[in-house]
Design a protein that fits this description.
Blueprint lengths: L8 E8 L6 H17 L4 E3 L13 H4 L8 H13 L2 E10 L6 E8 L5 E6 L5 E3 L4 E3 L11 E7 L2 E7 L8 H6 L5 E6 L3 H19 L2 E6 L14 E4 L5 E5 L4 E8 H10 L9
Parallel strand pairs: 1-2, 2-3, 9-10, 10-11
Antiparallel strand pairs: 1-14, 3-4, 4-5, 6-7, 8-9, 11-12, 12-13
Helix pairs in contact: 1-3
Length: 277
Amino acid sequence: MISSASNTELKVASIQMVSTPVLKENMETASRLIKAAAEDGANLVVLPEYFCLMGLKDSDKVHAREVFSSGPIQEQLAAIAQENRMYLVAGTIPLEAKDPNKVLNTLLAYDPDGQRIGRYDKIHLFGFQTSTERYQEFETIEAGNEPGILQISVDGQDWTFGLSICYDLRFPELYRALGQVDCHIIPAAFTYTTGKDHWEILLRARAIENQCYVLASAQGGKHQNQRRTWGHSMLIDPWGSILADLPEGEGFISGVLSKEKLNEVRSKLPALTHRKL
């Protein structure tokens, strides 16, 4: 991990993948891209939703689930964070749920020592159906019920991140409940159909209305299960400007979070202090 240019700035990166049904392949891809982002100077790296497995059928993730705090996926994530000396926000992995036929779709965060420092279980479950597409996450996923916050310190500067996952993006009340943060982290696997019309608009809206950065990590391409995801991993600033965007395919984007930019936006337009309801 390379120190930030100043203690009021934090270099971050977002990984984009086109995950397959083979867990080992996906872990190798994630590890390679994380290493590249760390070598580029990122202090914090985010993986996309379902980075470890995009199964041929929805139930595949149930068979790959792990017990919280124990399992090969979690062990590898901790090792990757430690090896690269950076903070790692690991997209989502399937964890054991109360219902044996379902999983929790869980984001885990690790520090540069490989210690787990954050967890968020996806609250809002995607449901979408047309004549050609059908997605019903509730059939294999158990919803979480607690918002997630991640706090880290780099070079003596504290940073606060709101945690959300994919479909959560459509529910602004969740982001209000998370309070004032420096950045919202959003791993996702948006479908091509919904992504082309709504992804960028929703991401920029969450940045503008909460006057913070948004760092989104996406799946981006045609998967072996024939699902097509939208891609466009992005970093957006508190004014709603897109600082980085990867349209499709695997790779990563990077950029800098700035406390000065946050303060500038919030001081010239103090909308967060003007709230009435």
